[in-house]
């Protein structure tokens, strides 16, 4: 039985810790797999050392991958092609390169808009469509969120607000989520700036601005079809009640982040919706088999309007698949066992 597993992550090996890089966030998983009797190899990946990294993946029974869709202005198309060949040879890969664009690209917001987590989403697949339809919608709705097809950490996500001043007609105010920079430009100038993006085969997704983003984003960490924890990313540290059963107080956790375990009463309703309905509905919509769900992925939500009984609703912001690292609070043993079970199928 082949018991060789590769943990493939983007970055350079650290001289002081050649076993695990990327801030050592994979060390616990590495150790858990070693403890279970597996031969684990840590494989740092950069676009420049593609061939060297891929050579280390041969003769592996399983590979877990942490490489963003865009790293240093380069996409991971070469890596995906190499991983697809390994999948065809029978190697278990998480997340699979054919599953990532179904779940992790921004079009998932459009394709699942009919679900309980859905919002008023538009998909622009050509520049001509975008140039003709986006101004009309913005004029009516005033504020919209625009997302390019592949992005991470807020890059390629814009809050677009149309307004009229005494000296400028058709001006818009832009806030870039990645840097929080704010600028004002003519709408026609902004639209024209996306022509090259469409020409290169990209697309844009438009969704509503959700006011309760001021209360933070709720990240649900998923192990295939199970919730394994929550992270509440707060926009500020004051004025938000983050107390309650289930809160995990973690030394060194970045300010503005609160971590909860999977059974926290605060998010019991959200967990139930994900595990009993939303994940399976998403799979059916996107044609993804249950066994092909990644070992580790996450869904990000913004709270919507409360129900008449005062309960929170949750609206999908994005799904992350390509490079979701386990947190210090993740049930590492469960992730390791899930990986090994999936490899054995």
Which key features would you list for this structure?
globular; 3 domains; 345 residues; D-amino Acid Aminotransferase, Chain A, domain 1; 27% helix; alpha+beta; 6-stranded antiparallel β-sheet; single chain; Rossmann fold
Provide structural commentary.
There is one protein chain. With 345 residues, the protein is of the alpha+beta class. It has 3 domains: 4-95, Rossmann fold (3-Layer(aba) Sandwich), CATH 3.40.50; 102-118 and 212-321, D-amino Acid Aminotransferase, Chain A, domain 1 (2-Layer Sandwich), CATH 3.30.470; 122-209, no CATH class. Helix content is 27%, strand content 27%. It contains 10 helices and 18 strands. A 6-stranded antiparallel β-sheet has the order 7-12-8-9-10-11. A hairpin with a 2-residue loop joins strand 4 and strand 5. Helix 1 packs across helix 10. It is globular and about 65 Å long. The model is unreliable at 236-254 (pLDDT under 50).
């Amino acid at each position: 039985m082949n018991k060789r597993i590769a943990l493939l992550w983007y970055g350079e090996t650290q001289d002081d810790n050649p076993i695990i890089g990327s801030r050592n966030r994979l060390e616990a998983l590495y150790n858990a797999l070693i403890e279970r009797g597996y031969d684990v190899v840590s494989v740092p990946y950069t676009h420049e050392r593609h061939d060297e990294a891929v050579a280390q993946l041969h003769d592996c029974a399983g590979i877990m991958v942490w490489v963003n869709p865009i790293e240093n202005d380069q996409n991971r198309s070469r890596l995906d092609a190499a991983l697809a060949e390994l999948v065809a040879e029978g190697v278990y890969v998480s997340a699979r390169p054919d599953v990532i664009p179904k779940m992790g690209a921004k079009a998932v917001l459009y394709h699942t808009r009919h679900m309980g987590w859905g919002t008023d989403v538009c998909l622009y697949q050509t520049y001509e469509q975008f140039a003709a339809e986006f101004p009309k919608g913005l004029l009516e709705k005033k504020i919209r969120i625009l997302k390019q097809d592949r992005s991470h950490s807020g890059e390629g996500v814009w809050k677009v607000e149309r307004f009229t001043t005494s000296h400028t007609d058709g001006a818009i105010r832009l806030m870039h989520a990645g840097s929080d920079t704010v600028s004002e430009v003519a709408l026609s100038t902004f639209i024209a700036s996306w022509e090259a993006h469409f020409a290169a085969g990209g697309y844009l997704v438009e969704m509503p601005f959700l006011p309760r983003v001021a209360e933070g984003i709720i990240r649900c960490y998923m192990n295939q079809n199970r919730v394994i924890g929550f992270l509440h990313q707060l926009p500020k540290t004051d004025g938000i009640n983050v107390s309650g059963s289930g809160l995990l107080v973690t030394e060194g956790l970045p300010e503005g982040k609160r971590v909860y375990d999977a059974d926290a009463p605060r998010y019991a309703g959200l967990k139930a919706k994900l595990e009993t309905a939303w994940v399976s509905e998403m799979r059916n919509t996107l044609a993804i088999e249950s066994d092909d769900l990644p070992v580790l992925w996450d869904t990000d939500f913004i709270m919507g309007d409360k129900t008449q009984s005062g309960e929170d609703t949750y609206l999908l912001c994005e799904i992350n698949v390509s490079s979701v690292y386990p947190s210090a609070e993740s049930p590492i043993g469960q992730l390791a066992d899930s990986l090994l079970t999936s490899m054995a199928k």
